[in-house]
Design brief:
Aspartate Aminotransferase, domain 2; 7-stranded mixed β-sheet; 13-stranded mixed β-sheet; Aspartate Aminotransferase, domain 1; alpha+beta; PyrdxlP-dep_Trfase; Aminopeptidase; 26 strands; coiled coil; 4 domains; 808 residues
Length: 808
C-alpha cells in the first residue's frame, strides 16, 4: 500500500502559536528606553511586569551592571577563542566563586541548552539508558535525541508518575548498566517540583538509578548560597546525582553550571563535551556579571533577598486563596499558573489584564496541553506588595468575566486540570434557549427518513448502515472493538434541524495516525502487551467510517450556537466517561468552524486524505479512459486492462462459510502488511454480519491462470441508497499481487461495479491516494480537531519517530 500523508507536529505548533500571535498575546516587543524590572511598556502602555524569570531582580543590580561594563572596557566585547585552548582572564575567578558556593568544582557552559548538549552525550555510555519526565525541559529532551544514534534506549513517563518510573526502571534494568532519570527541579510552567525525596528513595531501591536535574528555575531564590531547589532538598551532592544550574534568569548574568561529584567525569566532559570544545566561550561582560552575582550569593545578602521574595510569594498565595482561583500548583515557588482551560478564555483574560496594566505570560500548547491553556504569573523582587495586591484583585475580578464572555466555566476549568470542584465559582454560562439538543444511544430511536435526509448518502452511515455498525460493534465480545454509539440532534424552537451527528466511544491505538515506522515498533511490544499505548477515545463517527460525520445547516442564524452546544455536550461526555481523548473528524481542510473549534481547546491535525471518485456513467473502457488524465490513461491501458483477463470476477451478495474463511484470511494479510492507518484488527463476526445486511456485497477475484482458480482478492463493498458505493475493506493474497497487479485490478473492478449499478460516487476511503488518483479519484484534504488530557502520547510518538530516524 502506498504511504499516507501524516500530520507534521511543527505545523500543529505553528498553527496554535500563530493564533496566539494574531490576537496580540505572543511575540510582543518591549518599548522602554530603559528597564527597571517593575514595569514594562508594550504598545505604548506601561504595565506592571509579572512575567520575568529573574526572580530576585539581580539583572538590575548596579554592582552587576558595573562589573559587566568594566569587563568590556578591560577585555572587549568578546574573547573569540575556544576554552579548550585558553579561557579569558576572568574565568578562573568565576569558577572559584561557584565552587565556593557549592563546595564542588563546576563546569561553566555558554547556556543551559548548550550545556545539556555538551553534558548528556558525554555523561551516558552506550550501555546506559534514559527515562525522561515528559515535562522535562525541551533542551534536555533535545540533547537526549542524540543518544539514539548510539542505540541508547530513551523512554518517557507521565509527569511525576513514580509508579510508571519504577516500571520503566524494571524494564531497563536487565539491559542497562546505569539508568538516568531526567527531570526539572522546578518546572517552568506550573511551578511544581520534582519529588526529590521519593526519587532518592528509588535510587536506594535500585542501585542502577541515577538522577539528572535541570534546576534553572530553582536557582538563587532558595537554598544556601542560592544554590537552588535541588541542593536545598539533598543538602549534599551524591555520586549518582548530576545538577545543571544557571547563571542567567535569577542569577542575573549569563551561562550555566554543571555540578557533579565525580572528578573524572567532570574532566571527561570538560575535555570533550561538544559545545564546550567547539563553541565560543562566555563574553567577558557575562563572566564579570556572574562573578559579581556570585559574590552576592556568597554574602548574607542572599538570605535577605530570598526572605523578601518568600514574603511576597506568601502574600500572593494568601490573596489568591481568598478568591478561590484555580492555581494549579500551590507552593512556595515564584511561579504561579492560573488555569483557564481554553485558548480563547486565556486570550480574553490576558487582554483584560493588559488593559488593567499587568503583563502576564500566556501558557499554551505545546508547553502545556491545549485544553490546559492558562496564565503563567511570576513574582520577582521588583514587584511591590501594592502591585501584587492590585494584581490579585484584578485576577479575581476578571477571571469569571473572561470565562463568562467565552462560554466557559470554573467547573470546566477545574475538570480540565483535575482539580477539586468543591470551591468552584458559579459563573453564568451561555444559554441555549433558542436551541435544544436530543441524545439517543441507538439509530433505531431516530426516524429513518429524517436521518437519511441529512446524513444519508454519506459513506456507510445512512440509517441502514448504522444498524449494521451497531450490530457489528455495539456490545461486542471483542474488547478491542467494542463501541458505544451516541447520536445528537439539535433543533430550533420550531423543530427545524440545525445539526445532526453521531459518534462513538471506544479504544484507539495512540499511533493510529503515526507513521508506519512508529506503528511497526509498537506492534512488536503489543505482541506481549496488546494495550500498550492505547486510549479511550470519544470521536465523531467511528473507526469504520470516514467522511462528513456532522451535518450543520450553515445558512441558519443559529448555526454557531448549535455548534457550540455540540462542543459543550461532547466535553460533558468526555469528562463523564473520563476518556483520554476527544476527536472531531473529518472536516474539510478549509471549513467554517475552524476558529470556533480551536478556540474551545482543540488542536488541529491533518488527517489522511480522502479519496472520492465521481463520474458520469460510461458505456465502455474507452469512455472511462476519457475522464482520466493522459498519464493516468497510459497507466490504465498498460497496468489494468491487460491484466483483467487473468481474473475470474464474481459479485456476490453473501459468502459461504468456506468463502468467508478465505476472504477473512485475505483481509488479515492486508491488515498485517499495512500500518498506514493502524487500528485493531476486526473480528471475523464483523464480516459475517455483512452477509445478513442486504446493502453489502463482495467483489471476488479468482486467478484463472492458476490451477483451482484460488480466491486472491476481495473488496467488501457497501451500497448506500443508490448513491454512494463504498469499498470499505480489502483482502489480498500478496503472493500474486505484484505479478498480476492485483490491487489496481481491485480498484478498477470496484469502479466498474459502481458504474453497472449507476452509483454516481465511490468513497474510496483513505491511504494509497496515489494509486486511487490514477483511476480518477479526487483527493480531498481533511483535518481533525483533538483534545487530550496531556501531551504525553504525542511526545512519546515523536520520541519513537526520532528513534526510528536515528537508526534508519
Amino acid at each position: 500500500m502506498a504511504k499516507i500523508k501524516h500530520n507534521n507536529f511543527i505545523d500543529t505548533v505553528d498553527e496554535v502559536l500563530s493564533g496566539a500571535k494574531n490576537v496580540g498575546v505572543l511575540h510582543l516587543y518591549a518599548e522602554d528606553k530603559f528597564l527597571t524590572g517593575r514595569t514594562i511598556q508594550i504598545k505604548g502602555k506601561e504595565m506592571y511586569h509579572f512575567g520575568t524569570t529573574g526572580y530576585l531582580g539581580l539583572e538590575q543590580d548596579d554592582r552587576i551592571k558595573e562589573a559587566a561594563i568594566q569587563a568590556i572596557r578591560d577585555y572587549g566585547t568578546q574573547f573569540p577563542l575556544s576554552k579548550s585552548y585558553i579561557s579569558h582572564p576572568l574565568y578562573s575567578e568565576l569558577e572559584s566563586k561557584i565552587e565556593e558556593m557549592y563546595g564542588i568544582p563546576p563546569i561553566i557552559t555558554k547556556n543551559s541548552t548548550l550545556g545539556h548538549l555538551a553534558i548528556i552525550p558525554t555523561l551516558l555510555r552506550d550501555e546506559d539508558g534514559v527515562i525522561m519526565d515528559h515535562q522535562v525541559h525541551w533542551s534536555v529532551q533535545n540533547a537526549c535525541q542524540l543518544l539514539k544514534l548510539r542505540g541508547i534506549p530513551v523512554e518517557m513517563i507521565r509527569h511525576n508518575n513514580l509508579n510508571m518510573l519504577e516500571e520503566k526502571i524494571k524494564q531497563l534494568s536487565s539491559k542497562c548498566e546505569k539508568i538516568w532519570y531526567m527531570a526539572d527541579g522546578v518546572y517552568s510552567m506550573f511551578g511544581d517540583y520534582a519529588p526529590i525525596s521519593e526519587l532518592i528513595e528509588l535510587t536506594k531501591k535500585y542501585s542502577q538509578l541515577h538522577l539528572y536535574f535541570d534546576d534553572v528555575h530553582g536557582m538563587s531564590w532558595i537554598g544556601k548560597n542560592g544554590t537552588g531547589f535541588v541542593f536545598d532538598s539533598i543538602k549534599e551532592l551524591p555520586e549518582n546525582i548530576v545538577v545543571v544550574g544557571t547563571l542567567s534568569k535569577t542569577f542575573g548574568a549569563s551561562g550555566a553550571t554543571l555540578l557533579c561529584k565525580n572528578q573524572k567525569l567532570r574532566d571527561k566532559i570538560k575535555n570533550f563535551g561538544g559545545p564546550l570544545t567547539f563553541s565560543a566561550q562566555l563574553e567577558p561582560a557575562s563572566v564579570a556579571a556572574a562573578i559579581a552575582s556570585a559574590s552576592i550569593h556568597l554574602s548574607s545578602e542572599i538570605t535577605i533577598r530570598q526572605k523578601e521574595l518568600a514574603d511576597k510569594i506568601g502574600y500572593f498565595n494568601q490573596l489568591l486563596s481568598q478568591g478561590n482561583l484555580p492555581i494549579i500548583s500551590k507552593n512556595d515557588s515564584p511561579v504561579f499558573f492560573l488555569g483557564m482551560g481554553t485558548p480563547i478564555s486565556s486570550y480574553n483574560f490576558v487582554h483584560r489584564l493588559f488593559n488593567e496594566g499587568f503583563f502576564l505570560n500566556l501558557g499554551i500548547y505545546p508547553a502545556v496541553p491545549i485544553k490546559n491553556t492558562g496564565i503563567r504569573i511570576t513574582l520577582s523582587s521588583h514587584n511591590q506588595k501594592q502591585d501584587i495586591h492590585e494584581l490579585a484583585e484584578a485576577m479575581k475580578y476578571h477571571y469569571p468575566k473572561a470565562l463568562e464572555e467565552t462560554n466557559n466555566s470554573d467547573e470546566k476549568v477545574r475538570k480540565a486540570f483535575g482539580l477539586s470542584l468543591d470551591d468552584a465559582l458559579h459563573i453564568e454560562k451561555q444559554t441555549y434557549d433558542e436551541v435544544t439538543i436530543e441524545e439517543k444511544n441507538t439509530i433505531e430511536d431516530i426516524d429513518k427518513n429524517e436521518w437519511n435526509k441529512f446524513m444519508g448518502k454519506n459513506n456507510i452511515f445512512d440509517w441502514e448502515g448504522l444498524v449494521y455498525l451497531e450490530k457489528a460493534f455495539k456490545n461486542s465480545v471483542d474488547k478491542y472493538n467494542n463501541w458505544e454509539f451516541f447520536y445528537y440532534t439539535i433543533k430550533d424552537k420550531k423543530g427545524k434541524i440545525l445539526l445532526i451527528t453521531f459518534g462513538t466511544y471506544g479504544l484507539w491505538k495512540d499511533d493510529m495516525l503515526a507513521t508506519e515506522s512508529v506503528s511497526k515498533q509498537l506492534e512488536e511490544i503489543r505482541k506481549i502487551n496488546p494495550l500498550h499505548l492505547t486510549s479511550k477515545v470519544i470521536s465523531l463517527g467511528c473507526l469504520f467510517t470516514e467522511g462528513r460525520h456532522c451535518y450543520i445547516n450553515q445558512e441558519e442564524e443559529l448555526a454557531e450556537k448549535a455548534m457550540k452546544l455540540l462542543l459543550d455536550k461532547l466535553e460533558e461526555k468526555y469528562n463523564d466517561l473520563k476518556a483520554d481523548m476527544l476527536v472531531l473528524r473529518d472536516f474539510e481542510e478549509k471549513n467554517t468552524w475552524d476558529k470556533v473549534i480551536q478556540e474551545q481547546g482543540y488542536f488541529k491535525i491533518n488527517m489522511p486524505e480522502s479519496c472520492v471518485y465521481k463520474a458520469e456513467k460510461w458505456q465502455n473502457y474507452e469512455d472511462f479512459s476519457k475522464v482520466l488524465s493522459s498519464r493516468s490513461r497510459k497507466h490504465f491501458n498498460k497496468e489494468i486492462i491487460p491484466f483483467e483477463k487473468y481474473y475470474n470476477i464474481k459479485i456476490k451478495e453473501s459468502l459461504s462459510d468456506e468463502e468467508m474463511d478465505v476472504a477473512y484470511k485475505l483481509y488479515e494479510n492486508v491488515k498485517d502488511n499495512n500500518y498506514a492507518i493502524n487500528t485493531f484488527q476486526y473480528a471475523k463476526s464483523v464480516f459475517e454480519k455483512m452477509n445478513s445486511c442486504p446493502n453489502w456485497e463482495f467483489i471476488l477475484l479468482h486467478l484463472n491462470s492458476v490451477e483451482n482458480s484460488p480466491l486472491v482478492g476481495v473488496m467488501f463493498c457497501y451500497k448506500n441508497q443508490n448513491h454512494t458505493y463504498v469499498p470499505e475493506l480489502i483482502g489480498m493474497d500478496y503472493k500474486w499481487a505484484k505479478e498480476f497487479n492485483l490491487y489496481r485490478q481491485l480498484l478498477f473492478q470496484t469502479i466498474k461495479r459502481a458504474n453497472e449499478l449507476n452509483f454516481p460516487q465511490i468513497d474510496f476511503g483513505v491511504s494509497a491516494s496515489f494509486e486511487k488518483r490514477k483511476v480518477g479519484a479526487k483527493i480531498i484534504p481533511k483535518v481533525a480537531y483533538v483534545q487530550a488530557r496531556d501531551n504525553y502520547t504525542m511526545e512519546v510518538m515523536n520520541t519513537i519517530q526520532n528513534d526510528y530516524k536515528s537508526i534508519s
